Amino acid sequence: MDASPEHIGHVLRDRRMALDLTPQDVFEAIHLRVDYIRAIETLNADALPSIGYVLGYVRSYAKFLGLNADEAVARYKAEIAAPENICVSHLPHFVPKNKIKLPRGFIPALGVLGFAVMLSVWYGGTMASQAANPALLSVDSQTDTQMKEAPIDPNLVTLKASAPSWVQVTDGKGKTIISRIFVTGETYSAIRGSDLTFSVRDAGAVDIYIGKENLGALGEMGQALKDVPFPR
Asked: Which spans are transmembrane here (predicted)?
């Protein structure tokens, strides 16, 4: 029997399938992109935007499936940080080392060979290396492309602190999801149309985004807002 634990992506997928829902059904209900759903279910972080937005997706997805949203977010944060460690707790924590007996004179010969290779590289020069390996330039350009900003779901609503301010978010039943002072740059995200409300102590210190578009501050500096519904 396989005793390996499931990661949170598998839990979400199994719950969705148990409810006889397809990724398209989920998209139509909470507007979470199908490719994002599949990436969350497989912990494929490379196919997702930044972690701040993804945690909002996970929270909305888990809540829609009737699971504990806080627990789902906590597990996702822990498991996405080191996915290679998932399902290997049953393996030993050491690897036996086999002794290898090298032939006499092998180490000195290896040193001579290494020195010869180093001389060859030095005499060849940097330009010769680039001429022999033109693909190296395209690797650099691909890296630059990968560093560009990840796509953002246009249905995502984000509160972002431009200065420290207390922020509280509650669900449709009045349960508090978060209630703390946001530091500058801290965000909270939810899918547009979520049954959530927010309160802030300083509306001028919190900006609201729809997708990538910054709609500006929630209000005037020092203005307090209470139980404002998230945009629909």
From this structure: 106-125
Instruction: Provide the CATH topology of domain 8-85.
Output: 434 Repressor (Amino-terminal Domain) (1.10.260)
pLDDT in the model for residue 100: 57
Question: Residue 83 phi/psi, 5° resolution?
Answer: -60, -25
Nearest to 24 by CA among 7, 43, 39, 37: 37
- Residue spans of the domains in the chain: they are 8-85, 156-229
H/E stretch holding 206 reads: strand 206-210
Single out the residue of 157, 163, 228 nearest to residue 202, CA to CA: 163
Q: Please say whether the beta carbons of 38 and 46 come within 8 A.
A: no
Q: Which amino acid is at 112?
A: V
CB atoms near residue 18 (< 10 Å)? 9
pLDDT value for 131: 46
pLDDT 10s digits, 48-92: 999 989 999 999 999 999 999 999 999 999 998 754 444 443 444
Q: The pTM is what?
A: 0.37
